[in-house]
Design brief:
Blueprint: H1 2-14, H2 16-27, E1 48-49, E2 52-53, H3 54-60, E3 66-68, E4 83-88, H4 94-110, E5 113-118, H5 123-136, E6 140-143, H6 149-161, E7 166-169, E8 181-185, H7 187-205, E9 210-216, H8 222-238, E10 244-251, H9 257-270, E11 274-279, H10 282-294, E12 302-307, H11 310-317, E13 322-327, H12 330-346, E14 356-359, E15 363-364
Parallel strand pairs: 3-14, 4-5, 4-6, 6-7, 7-8, 8-14, 9-10, 9-11, 11-12, 12-13
Antiparallel strand pairs: 1-2, 13-15
């Protein structure tokens, strides 16, 4: 894996000199060129676009995670028609499509112009797309980083050198990348809320030892592992008597209903006494619900996950097996990202509250899900 990573990075670096020249020329048409040092000497790497001193701005932003209330961040109006590039991971699955659609709609509602690029989960393609945005002289970039994130760092650092601020959505860029802020939901805390609620229900509705399983996403994924760990920690905290036993953990391989169904089928067959399935995302438990219905076990196995999709919410509202959902709203994340970047472009003193801006965690249960539509 490390050797293949080195080869990928080497290939990307090979074209760095030529693309950097193109990026610099492209920005000169839109006021996005790097400002020369005040003393007339060599450029120290401090970038500025339309008066933005990105080096000073990035350095000034606190690094501690801060919770953001969307209601306290009103929609601004753009001082001019800013062009903002959207480098999205993909626009096909429910969460990511909603995230891309929201970013685009919010930018346009504010008075800007959005350029959408879908890398289809390909880091090399995303690097190229970001470099194209730089060459076009966009005013800012919103990125949903692809794996391997180390590769995407190259493009984000080029944007910094070109004086173009970058804000990340869904997850932070990899360490070493230059960026303004990351707008995320708190993966660990959402996983914790789901695990806590399901643990309470398992203990209340069963005697003696109770078995549960977890459907993981993809190995090494930052968000997935945090959600899974949050759920495990919550179960342990609630289960003071040691009655709850994790008997299965299986990677689904992706974040689709099909993978959730197939993984749950294997889990249920191998564990006939299973009482609960915790998914990494809603799609996993929507698929798991179908698998449990096939086996006639949807009435005895409770489920929960993180997202808040329409499909999962509808199952909960109908009294189905899904009993806990951590709300991971791509709509709120997209709105915060768009408003934050336009506020900065309007006024360089309007910097984000933190390098890591998290949305307030929220838990849906059958008791409070009425009227919630999902995404």
């Amino acid at each position: 894996m490390k050797n293949s990573m080195k080869r990928l990075l080497a290939a990307l670096m090979a074209g760095a000199m030529m693309t950097a020249m193109l990026a610099g020329c492209g920005n000169s048409q839109n006021g996005g060129q790097t400002a020369p040092p005040a003393d007339g000497g060599q450029d120290s790497g401090s970038a500025a676009s339309d008066g933005l001193d990105l080096a000073a701005i990035y350095k000034s932003i606190p690094t501690e995670q801060t919770y953001i209330d969307i209601n306290a961040l009103p929609q601004p109006k753009a001082n001019k028609e800013y062009t903002i590039g959207l480098a999205m991971l993909n626009v096909n699955t429910g969460f990511f499509k909603s995230l891309a659609d929201t970013c685009k709609a919010e930018i346009e509602a504010i008075g800007g112009k959005a350029l959408l690029a879908d890398c289809e989960s390909d880091a090399t393609k995303q690097v190229s797309q970001i470099e194209n945005f730089i060459a076009q002289g966009v005013d800012a970039i919103i990125v949903n980083p692809a794996d391997p994130q180390e590769a995407v760092n190259i493009a984000l650092n080029k944007a910094f050198d070109a004086g173009i601020p970058v804000i990340s959505v869904d997850l932070p860029p990899d360490e070493g990348a230059q960026y303004l802020s990351a707008c995320i939901t708190d993966a660990y805390q959402l996983g914790y809320l789901v695990g806590e609620e399901l643990a309470k229900q398992m203990l209340a509705n069963n005697e003696g030892e109770v078995e549960f399983g977890i459907i993981g996403g993809t190995e090494g994924n930052y968000i997935a592992s945090n959600r899974n760990q949050g759920a495990r920690d919550a179960v342990k905290a609630v289960d003071t008597e040691g009655r709850l036993k994790e008997v299965s953990f299986l990677y689904a391989g992706d974040y689709s209903e099909q993978s959730g169904m197939e993984t749950a089928e294997n889990m249920l067959v191998a564990n006939p006494n299973l009482k609960c399935i915790i998914g990494t995302c809603d799609a996993h438990v929507v698929g798991a619900y179908a698998a449990a219905k096939r086996q006639g076990r949807d009435g005895s196995v409770i489920m929960g996950a993180v997202d808040g999709s329409k499909a999962a919410v509808e199952i909960m509202q109908a009294g189905g097996s899904i009993k806990a959902l951590g709300v991971n709203s791509p709509i709120v994340v997209g709105e915060v990202a768009a408003r934050t970047i336009v506020n900065l472009l309007n006024d360089p003193s309007q910097v984000p509250a933190s390098k890591l801006m998290a949305m307030q965690p929220e838990l849906l249960t059958p008791a409070n899900c009425e009227g919630f539509e999902g995404f």
